[in-house]
Amino acid sequence: MSILGLKKKQPKTFKVKVITMDAEMEFSCEVKWKGKDLFDLVCRTVGLRETWFFGLRYTVKDTYAWLKPEKRVLDQEVPKDSPITFHFLAKFFPEKVEEELVQEITQHLFFLQVKKQILDEEIFCSPEASVLLASYAVQAKYGDYDPNFHKPGFLAQDELLPKRVLMQYQMTADMWEEKITAWYAEHRGIARDEAEMEYLKIAQDLEMYGVSYFAITQNKRDTDLLLGVDAQGLHIYSPNSKLNPNKSFPWSGIRNISYSEKEFTIKPLDKKKDVFKFYSSQLRVNKLILQLCIGNHDLFMRRRKVDSIEVQQMKAQAKEEKARKKMERQILAREKQMREEAERAKEEMERRLFQLQDEARLANEALLRSEETADLLAEKAQIAEEEAKLLAHKAADAEQERQRLEVTAMKTKEEKRLMEQKMREAEQLAVKLVEQSERRLKEADHLKQDLTEAKDAERRAKQKLLEITKTTYPVRNATSADFGYESASTRLDFKDSDMKRLSMEIERERLEYMEKSKHLQDQLKELKTEIESLKLEEQQQQAGLYNLRSERNSAYMSQMAYFEEV
Fold first, then answer.
1. Tens digits of per-residue pLDDT, 71-83?
2. Cα distances (Å, whole numbers) of residue 483 to 154, 439, 477, 480
3. Which of the listed residues 22, 101, 163, 527 has the most CB atoms within 10 Å of its CB?
4. Among 119, 117, 110, 118, which residue's Cα sits nearest to residue 20?
5. pLDDT in tens, 314-349
6. Residue (of 31, 27, 32) closest to 43 by Cα position
7. 500 a known binding residue?
8. Binding residue per annotation — 91?
């Protein structure tokens, strides 16, 4: 048997790569596996139990399709690549995320997918809502805001806003980060799953949330409409507006949807309303529309029924899990708070220790300086004490000198007063003496005049007597005449001696008066000189007293300044 005759063996397995929103997985699948087998394997690997929302999507030419669970994987129009690539995505969306999404992994996958659709602008979102959603996304990723850890620029590598929003406003990346951070700081205490749920609760109110759009026509020629399929029903849009539908058909108002090749027929539950028909030219797109319509309608009816036992168990487990996680978060929060408080206390103690060490070091340095200062101050105090004693001694001497000067000044004033009184008395005496001298001079002049007149009278008498004597008496009577003459001459001589004596007395008195007057003038001069010297001495004493007081004040101020410095 030759080798060429052997048939080539078919492989029993094929490789598959499944891409979720946050991971990539590769599986080795058996050839006979159906789509459900691969889907269940992925769900088990992910840990997902709410499988009815999800599916495996693959690309076919210019569109996409969902792997059918009832057919073999290799029998479908999957790519022939190895490994075959599938995307694990949400195929159907809930009406109310908070009530329908039970598992945390389900919430997380929806959160990642919806966030990507908003960033890729598959879902329109206003700038304000975009910033708020971005803040919840940051909370889910980074946890609570910490200004010490989340420094400016920490969001530089994160894609958080649609490009349309970034281009709509002339704002820098730092300005957008500041706006997002302001909202982000308000979400403190929200756990990751809670932040993701808040994100979905806001996103589910957006007009394009959970809507799958398809190009359709109302006739076979023009493509002028859009068909939207979501959890609420079917919606008809204008080609340029995906936000506000022109017409809507809620699942509760649809009686039947029929499909025949390229034509779809929507029959309302109200028979009075017209039947709506539209056309789609691509067979794959038509099959996809039909799948989405059936799946969304089934979920719509399922929501209005009592939950199955499996869902009830899942919700109960999820409730318990949430309660347990909430308890754990509370415990972690308390532990975190206690740890933060302990760290703060530790930091405070370390800071206090460093502070105390610094204070101790400073205290030691201050102690050394104080000891040196104490020695210096002791020396200065001793010097100051000696200076104080010296100053006190000087002050005492100055006080004694001041008292002496005051006594001297008082004596000087008294002596001055007495001198002035003596001077006044001397002046009065001088005036009296002058008056007396003038009076004596006048008397002397009168006496001289009388004397002169007496001498003249005596001379005339003598002359007359001689004449009489010569003519009347003879020589015989010479003896008697001579005797008489002698008597007369004696009398005349006596008168002449009296006049001389009187004149001499007057002259002597005048000379004595002149001497007394001169002596008085000399005394007055001496008195004036003494008064002037007393005045000068008094001025010198006052100047000395002022200088002494100034010196005492300066010494006192210097002493006080020194003691203050000490």
1. 999 998 888 888 8
2. 173, 43, 10, 5
3. 101
4. 110
5. 888 878 888 888 888 788 878 888 888 888 888 889
6. 27
7. no
8. no
